[in-house]
Amino acid sequence: MGVCERFAGSWRRFIVISLRLLFLLPAGLPVRSQGDSQTDNKVMDNITVRQGETVFLSCSQGDVVTHTAWLNRSSILYAGEDKWSVDPRVTLVTLNQEEFTIKIENVEMTDEGQYICAVQTSSKPRTTSVHVIVQVPPKITELSKDLVVNEGANVTLKCLASGKPEPSVSWRLLSPSDENIGSDDEYLEIPSVSRQRAGTYECTAVNEVDTVAQTVELMVNYPPTVLEGRDVGVTLGQRGTLECEADAIPEADFEWYRDDRRIFNGFDGIEIEDAGGLSKLTFFNVTEADYGNYTCVAINKLGSANTSILLYEVIQPTSSTLLQVETTSVLQMTSSVLAKTASENIAILEGPGAVQDGNSGSTATYAPTCLLLIITLQLLLKF
Ligand SMILES: *[C@@H]1O[C@H](CO)[C@@H](O)[C@H](O)[C@H]1NC(C)=O
Ligand SMILES: *[C@@H]1O[C@H](CO)[C@@H](O)[C@H](O)[C@H]1NC(C)=O
Ligand SMILES: *[C@@H]1O[C@H](CO)[C@@H](O)[C@H](O)[C@H]1NC(C)=O
Ligand SMILES: *[C@@H]1O[C@H](CO)[C@@H](O)[C@H](O)[C@H]1NC(C)=O
Ligand SMILES: *[C@@H]1O[C@H](CO)[C@@H](O)[C@H](O)[C@H]1NC(C)=O
Ligand SMILES: *[C@@H]1O[C@H](CO)[C@@H](O)[C@H](O)[C@H]1NC(C)=O
């Protein structure tokens, strides 16, 4: 004999005893406890109800019902119209020749189980049992807090959920959205986390009743990297701005250097402005002394990076400056010719052969064209 049968047997015995007590059955009435052909036991389909809702329990009566009762496990809820239960959620709906219906409002998890309708007719007792299954929407009971970690750390996100039926839990990277990052598990393991894995993670718990979701922010700190600086050309007296862009979390602080000297905001005619990972060094009126090599250093608690930017002079291409450039170069050429002539005049006077024997090739190239001029000058100097 199986456990179930034994259980069913003891149930039957129990019901009979209950009914005896309840209905004060005459002791002589032929009520047998096991294998009783005179007792009609019926099992109804399971009733599934959601937590908080109302469930109706109904059983049919019959022609000559003398006594009837609804039981929750071992306790009587209603005996006929008499309420035995002290639970205010349990009330009588209908009791007549056809049916006996009670209802349980605001159903709780603990209400789950077997309910029995016991009916005593003039001929034989009859029981109808029904199993009430209570479903509970999922609820996230434990969730990782928002996290700030350094790049390379091993991260585990945790999401525990309760509910009936047992909810299935999953993780995904919500923003920036990435289908490939996630897990169908209560735990999401991210070994050696990279900066690309930072973002908003969503934990979802699903069962037949409902779906719930909550999010966790994962922040990944990393040291700065700076974009290669672009050299900037500015005309004397004009405004000039050097820009330095850094990528870092937490956001980088910037330092500017001219060669090895630190430059501070508020220095004469200089302004340093930092915002959103970008630092700008502005010269309101570029002077000759400002031209040079500048270094921008981006720093956060994990490290630093730097780049060098050249501030160089640009001559404005107006017609007057163009003319100036030409005149200057002509004058420079003449003076260099004169300087060379001073040291080589003896050689030149000695003849072209001596010039070709000299080490300087460039002297040799321009010498013939200027020969006339030089000779003229020398003649002039002699007088
Ligand atoms: C009723 O529920 C019980 C317990 O969950 C289960 O063992 C049984 O198979 C169900 N019966 C039906 C008919 O669904
Ligand atoms: C049914 O019985 C269980 C166990 O004793 C109890 O926790 C629950 O509140 C009862 N439900 C009703 C509706 O009486
Ligand atoms: C991460 O886990 C791996 C493997 O378990 C281990 O070798 C490594 O040291 C861990 N890294 C950190 C930063 O804890
Ligand atoms: C820039 O500075 C020079 C010399 O100090 C001055 O002559 C000139 O007016 C200034 N230019 C501007 C635009 O302020
Ligand atoms: C500017 O200075 C940095 C460091 O002081 C140096 O590495 C770099 O070569 C310099 N750039 C130029 C163009 O002189
Ligand atoms: C700039 O970075 C180089 C290595 O990339 C480092 O050697 C140098 O010291 C840094 N300069 C400053 C001013 O931080």
TrEMBL record:
<protein>
    <submittedName>
        <fullName>Neurotrimin isoform X1</fullName>
    </submittedName>
</protein>
<keyword id="KW-0325">Glycoprotein</keyword>
<dbReference type="InterPro" id="IPR013783">
    <property type="entry name" value="Ig-like_fold"/>
</dbReference>
<feature type="signal peptide">
    <location>
        <begin position="1"/>
        <end position="30"/>
    </location>
</feature>
<keyword id="KW-0393">Immunoglobulin domain</keyword>
<keyword id="KW-0732">Signal</keyword>
<feature type="domain" description="Ig-like">
    <location>
        <begin position="138"/>
        <end position="219"/>
    </location>
</feature>
<dbReference type="InterPro" id="IPR007110">
    <property type="entry name" value="Ig-like_dom"/>
</dbReference>
<dbReference type="InterPro" id="IPR036179">
    <property type="entry name" value="Ig-like_dom_sf"/>
</dbReference>
<dbReference type="InterPro" id="IPR003599">
    <property type="entry name" value="Ig_sub"/>
</dbReference>
<dbReference type="Pfam" id="PF07679">
    <property type="entry name" value="I-set"/>
</dbReference>
<comment type="similarity">
    <text>Belongs to the immunoglobulin superfamily. IgLON family.</text>
</comment>
<dbReference type="InterPro" id="IPR013098">
    <property type="entry name" value="Ig_I-set"/>
</dbReference>
<dbReference type="InterPro" id="IPR050876">
    <property type="entry name" value="IgLON_domain"/>
</dbReference>
<feature type="domain" description="Ig-like">
    <location>
        <begin position="223"/>
        <end position="308"/>
    </location>
</feature>
<keyword id="KW-1015">Disulfide bond</keyword>
<keyword id="KW-0677">Repeat</keyword>
<dbReference type="Pfam" id="PF13927">
    <property type="entry name" value="Ig_3"/>
</dbReference>
<dbReference type="InterPro" id="IPR003598">
    <property type="entry name" value="Ig_sub2"/>
</dbReference>
<feature type="domain" description="Ig-like">
    <location>
        <begin position="26"/>
        <end position="129"/>
    </location>
</feature>
